Structure formats: C-alpha cells, structure tokens
Amino acid sequence: AQKITQTQPGMFVQEKEAVTLDCTYDTSDPSYGLFWYKQPSSGEMIFLIYQGSYDQQNATEGRYSLNFQKARKSANLVISASQLGDSAMYFCAMRESNRDDKIIFGKGTRLHILP
Amino acid sequence: EAQVTQNPRYLITVTGKKLTVTCSQNMNHEYMSWYRQDPGLGLRQIYYSMNVEVTDKGDVPEGYKVSRKEKRNFPLILESPSPNQTSLYFCASSFGDRTEAFFGQGTRLTVV
Q1: Do B98 and A52 touch (CB under 8 A)?
Q2: Please, is A31 exposed, middle or buried when counting C-beta atoms within 10 Å of its C-beta (0-12, 13-18, 19+)?
Q3: Which DSSP state fits B97?
Q4: pLDDT, tens digit, for every residue of A24-57?
Q5: Are B107 and B10 in contact (CB under 8 A)?
Q6: Can you give the pLDDT at residue A98?
Q7: Inter-chain CB proximity A33 and B88 less than 8 Å
Q8: For position B70, what pLDDT does the model report?
C-alpha cells in the first residue's frame, strides 16, 4: 500500500489564484514528519515546508501553508497568490521515527501556472 | 550559506568505468542519504548514514557503495556502472529523523 498518495497528477491554475495540492499519508507511527518539496524543470529538489505530527498549529512559510488534518491523515499544501515561477513538480513526503533515515515520497503533482 | 553540494551535476560515462559522485554538507548534519529518481518509480533511497563510519543499505543498494569517513562528506561510488544506473541522483542531509532534509542540486548520470 502506498504510504503517500497524491491524487492530482497535474493541475492548471490561473496566476494569482490560490492552489491546493492534495496529499494523504498512511502510517502507524505516532511520531512522524511531513514535508513538501518543489522540483522545477531544472531538477533540483527544494524544501518548502515541514509539519511535525505533534505540532498543534499548521505550518506556514511565506506563501506556503500546510493544511494538516491528523485524523484524516491529510497534509495538503496551499500556495497563496500563485506566480508563474510556481510552475513545477511538487512532492509530498513523510519521514517516520524509524532508524533508516528514509523519506517516503509521493508520485508528485505537476503544477502549471497560467498567465 | 547552508547547503548540500553534489559534484558533478552532469556525467556521461561508459559501462564498467568506476565513478564517484561527491556530496558535501556544511550544516553539521548527522544524517545523510542518497536517492535516485526515475520516471514512474519516484525517489528511492540507495544508502544512508546516521553518523561517521555508520552506513546502511536503503531500498536499492545493488551496484553502489558509500563511505562516511567525515561528517560533512558522503560520496556515492559506482564500481562498475551499468546502463540501468542511468538516473538523477540526489544527496540529502538532515539533523535527524522527523526534521527536514536538504537536498543537493542533483547529478544527472548517463551510462552508455
């Protein structure tokens, strides 16, 4: 079974609109971390935002916020006021408190921002 | 500037010719990992290290070696590269589990 599910392979959004990228996860570990990464066409993996499983408040970083719904095992990324430079592949990822340092990635959502 | 640096960024090599991809981080992170990214397969962990002289296999370690002699460096060694190791490789580092991992710029390797 997939541990990270991103159900939107691709999205088209008008510039300046807000966009929500969906992510659900599956874990039995009570302690875990959730991340979002951005991968532009140049290929690098850019860290965007982090949410710990025990964090009471949703994480925010500038225009990025993470809508964390623990009971639903959901960790959606919200980008406010989208910009053309936001066009990229976005990956949701999880890290459990195990001993293998592994980050488990979803298959990604390709976001296209339209002018 | 805090960063993870991989070299080279691009490499085309021939089957069987040993190569090393270097990875260095300046954040004093204990945890370091190597991943490969392939279309349709996503990112998969190759090897990881939780401290100096401590390394272990990830999901796809066959054909790769690593070493961790110093905290900042974690090179990936392909002793005898084969075409199925053509991929985009990432090195990542972090302070520990449940903290964010920072990735290098990626190394696009082609084995012909």
Answers
A1: yes
A2: middle
A3: T
A4: 999 988 889 999 999 999 999 999 999 999 998 9
A5: yes
A6: 67
A7: no
A8: 96
d(CA B13, CA A27): 40
| Candidates B101, B102, B106; nearest CB to A43 | B106
Tally the C-alpha atoms within 13 A of residue A106's C-alpha that lie toward its C-beta. 30
Does the beta-carbon distance from B90 to A45 stay under 8 Å?
yes
Contacts of A46 in chain B (CB under 8 A): 103
**Per-position b or e across A64-99, b if 16+ CB within 10 A of its CB:** bbbbbeeeeeebbbbbeebeeebbbbbbbbbbbeee
Question: What span, in angstroms and rounded, lies between the C-alpha atoms of A88 and B5?
Answer: 22
Measured distance CA(B75)–CA(B6) in Å, rounded: 9
What confidence tens digit (pLDDT) does each residue in B49-95 have?
A: 999 999 999 999 999 999 999 999 999 999 999 999 999 999 999 98
Whether a cis peptide bond, with omega within 30° of 0, leads into B8 is yes
Integer Cα distance of A59 and B46 in angstroms: 30
**Contacts of residue A38 in chain B, CB cutoff 8 Å?**
none
